[in-house]
Every structure is written in structure tokens, then in C-alpha cells.
Amino acid sequence: MSHRRPAENDAAAGTAPPEPQVAGAVDPVELAEAVRGAARRLGFSLVGIAPAVDAPGWERLRAWVDAGMAGAMDYVARRLPAYRHPQNVLPGVRSVVMLGMDYHTPARRPVEAGYGRVSSYAWGSADYHDVIRGRLRRLAGVLHERVPGCRTRGVVDTAPLLERDFARLAGLGWFGKNTMLINKRRGSFFFLAALLTDVPLAPDEPFATAHCGTCTRCIDACPTEAIRHDGTLDARRCISYLTIELRDRPIPEDLRGGLGDWVFGCDVCQDVCPWNRHARPTTEPAFEPRPDLNPLELTRLFELDEAAFRERFGDTPLARPGRSGILRNAAIVLGNTGDARFVEPLAVALNDPDAIVRGAAAWALGCIGGAESVAALRRRAALESDPEVAEEITRALRAAIGTDAVGDGEAPSTTSGQRAASGPGVLPGGLETGDTCRESE
Length: 441
Ligand code: B12
Ligand code: SF4
Ligand code: SF4
Prior knowledge:
Layout: H1 28-41, E1 46-51, H2 58-66, H3 74-78, E2 95-102, E3 115-118, H4 128-146, E4 152-155, H5 163-169, E5 174-175, E6 181-182, E7 190-197, H6 217-221, H7 239-245, H8 253-256, E8 262-264, H9 268-271, E9 296-297, H10 306-313, H11 322-337, H12 343-349, H13 355-368, H14 371-383, H15 387-401, H16 433-438
Parallel strand pairs: 3-8
Antiparallel strand pairs: 1-2, 2-7, 3-9, 4-7, 5-6
Helix pairs in contact: 1-4, 11-13, 12-13, 13-14, 13-15, 14-15
The chain binds cobalamin and iron/sulfur cluster (2 copies).
The site of one iron/sulfur cluster has 13 residues, from helix 7 and helix 9.
């Protein structure tokens, strides 16, 4: 998802000492109630309080990072020691107020070829980080008013805090097999955020049970087989990671087909989850879907330069992968359609100033094949100066023409290493040519 890079201060950074004038002055139970009430009024539908203890999931996080499953998200590995205790996020912390804000809107519109699906958390007119940070500041204000001199820090996403771990400790729900924090009454379509404070607040009971039972729908439905049976997710395979977090480089070729029509993020493992039948619609106007994001028209995106892209998407989560990432993803989604109507926009993308976009467009044209794709690829091959894009073009021509020699009139071959495609027609095993591009090989 749109996980921002670590910021120096997340939100609501606390005022400096003096020590809070809290000892004996304010009842932790009464104060906890006041915080709960204020949080609900600020639009957080879930509120729970965890004690500031060692993160129970830290060893699992370390194992996950050590196994390389964080992929290119090196900010997680870099700050691994800091995740051990929330003390590293706010020195002197005693309580972690965990909050959930619903973003579900019941209106996923149908997606025709030429459009891409955007994860529902990003349909709104504002980035959730900005919306939530503002609310955290106001919630911190409630504590500061009651306990002058106390310290607070509000975080959403970017601090070294295992938010799902502390949400479970605060009684908000359990870890589903899809790794989401699931709440019995609300499902999982909510953001998490935390307000850390040095004020002692009466904690809630941790959520001690899990309610997935024998269900494996999310594991079975994941298009790229990213969810493992041991309750971990290999981020390197997750469409959310590939389309949002993996930036400034190509998406690994064997996973491009698995994107299907997802151009930003992925909701599959939540859409299939029975607990999301209980998801409640958001009451937050900023999360109401923008019609142009649900779904996103792809073919015109290649006409946007950097400034135009920023103008259109600068305030939304799509700004994180930026023009380069979104146009790369769009080219792959168009390639996955196998539809010749998209050769023209892809031929435009093939001459994009950004090499990542050109490489993805080449791959997509190889998927679609046909004389026009081949002609566009050949024209670009004569001009291309980037060695990686030139290599993509060579492989795409092989896929489109079906020869190893990237020339006319050679015998079809399935040894090119990219796809066993051979132009329009049926492949061994009864697959139609387009299917090889849609599959996660
Ligand atoms: C890195 C990251 C990602 C990565 C990796 C995701 C992952 N599953 O690890 C990628 C880019 C793939 C990703 C994708 C998404 N993310 Co994300 N992500 C994060 C981030 C920044 C850190 C998570 C992390 O450290 N992961 C490493 C693993 C090891 O830790 P973990 O999953 O947080 O915690 C697990 C362990 O502690 C373990 N565990 C601990 N003890 C035990 C014991 C047992 C027995 C078991 C089985 C497990 C277990 O289970 C926990 C829950 O999975 C958090 C924000 C934050 N600071 O926490 C958001 C966050 C988790 N993401 C969020 C969201 C919404 C998403 C997406 C839905 C976005 C989208 N639609 O595209 C997808 C969902 C994919 C999925 N199924 O997880 C929300 C989740 C809200 C919720 N209700 O759970 C968070 C909290 C952001 C937020 N502030 O709202 N994300
Ligand atoms: S978000 Fe999509 S790709 Fe990632 S684990 Fe869930 S279903 Fe799989
Ligand atoms: S789909 Fe089934 S297994 Fe997966 S998180 Fe939901 S209940 Fe658990």
C-alpha cells in the first residue's frame, strides 16, 4: 500500500519535557475513557489501548526480513532494532492508543479492458496519511489539555511500530491468514494509526483468539501466491508491493501476468474474506471514491508529463509510485488484456522519456503481438540506447514474432526464455496466446 518513507516526525510530535503532571492527578481509567470518546468523535471507529511493551511480533518481523521477504523495502530492515519497543518511537512512552478508521465504500465499479483497478483505500480525494495525521493532532490535543506537559506522538505507517501487533494487543482484532488485522464487527477495510503517550492509560485486554478456522479463501485467491500457509506474506510477490513499493525498476517478469488488471494495490485477499461482509461504509468524506480512480482509465495516462501527473494525482496515494510506477503498471495491465486496441497507446509509451515505462510497454506489445506491435518494437529497437530496455524489446519481439532470431520468416520457437507465445493462435496445452501474459508463470 501507499506506505510512505519514514519521516522525521510522523504527526503530533510532543512538546518537550517537563514530565507530565499526571501521577495521581488523573485517573488512568477516566482518562482512557476520555481518549476513547474523543477518538470516536474524530472519526475513528475502533479504539483500543495497549501497554507500551516489547513488540510481541518482533522475532517474526526479524525472520521475515532475514528471509528477504521485505524485498526492496529497505527502510524496514534498516530500522529493525527500533521496532523492538515503542520506546524507540517515543522515549518514555507508557501507553499506545491504537485506532482504526474505515475506508470501505461499497461501490467497486466494473472494469472494462483499457481500465485498471485501484485498491479501494486509494479511491478518495486525499491521501489517508494526511487525513489521519490531522485527526491524531487533535486527539493529542485532548491529552495535552488534560495532562499539561505530557508527551505524545501520532503515527500512521512510517514509524518503526508494528501497528497490527499493537492493534491486537489493544484488543482490536486478530491476524487473518491474509495477515490483515481483522475485527469481528468491521472486517479489515480500515486503516490503523497510533497515538503514543507517556501518560498511563488503563489498557484493554489483548485479542486472544483467531477466527479464520479452516477457511483458506485468501490464500487460494491471491493471484500471485504471495500468502504462505504459515501466516506470513512474501511481500516480493504481493501486487500491492509490486505496483506501489517497487519503484524505479521493472516488475519481475514472471509476476507481471499476475497483476491482471490491478494498476495500483490489490484488494483480492480482503474482497474474498467472509469477515468483510461486516465491513461498514466509511463516514469520512475524503475517502468517498473519485470517479476517475474507480477504475482508472489507462490509455490516456501516457500523455501526462511529470507536471500533469502531479497535478492530477499529487494529493492521492498514487503519488507514491509516481508517474514512472503508474505508467509502468498501466502498460503491464494493457499487455495483460492481449487486446490489439491498445497497441497505439503502448506505442506512445514505448517512446516515453522514462526507461522503466518503455521497458514495460515493450513487454506489453510482445504480449499483444501482431504486425503493428512488431513494427513499433522494431522502430524503437533502432533508437533505444538503454541496454535493459533494448533487451526487453528483443524479448518482446521474440514473443510477438515467435522466433529466436527476432527476424521474419523463422520457425516458431518456445525457447526464448520470456513467454512461449507465438503470435495469435493456440499454444501447447490449449492456452491462447494472451493467456501466457496473464499467468503468473
Ligand atoms: C510493509 C507493509 C506492507 C507490505 C508488507 C505487508 C505484510 N503483510 O507484511 C506490503 C507492501 C505488501 C503491504 C501491503 C498491504 N498493506 Co501494508 N503495511 C506495511 C507496514 C508499513 C509494515 C508492516 C510490516 O511490518 N510487515 C512485516 C510483517 C512481519 O509484520 P505485520 O504483518 O505488520 O505483523 C505480523 C506479525 O507480527 C505476525 N505475527 C505476530 N505474532 C504472530 C503470531 C502468529 C501465530 C501469527 C500467525 C502471526 C503473528 O502477524 C502480524 C500480522 O500480519 C504497515 C504499517 C505498520 N507500520 O505496521 C502497513 C499496513 C499493515 N498495511 C496496511 C494495508 C491496508 C495494506 C494493503 C491492504 C494495501 C492494499 N490494498 O494494497 C495491502 C495488504 C496486503 C496484505 N495481505 O498484507 C494496513 C493494514 C490495516 C489492517 N486492517 O490490517 C497497515 C497497518 C497500514 C495502516 N496504517 O493502515 N503492506
Ligand atoms: S494484496 Fe493481493 S497480491 Fe497481496 S497478498 Fe493480498 S491478494 Fe495477494
Ligand atoms: S479469507 Fe478466510 S482465511 Fe483468509 S483472512 Fe479471511 S477468514 Fe481468514
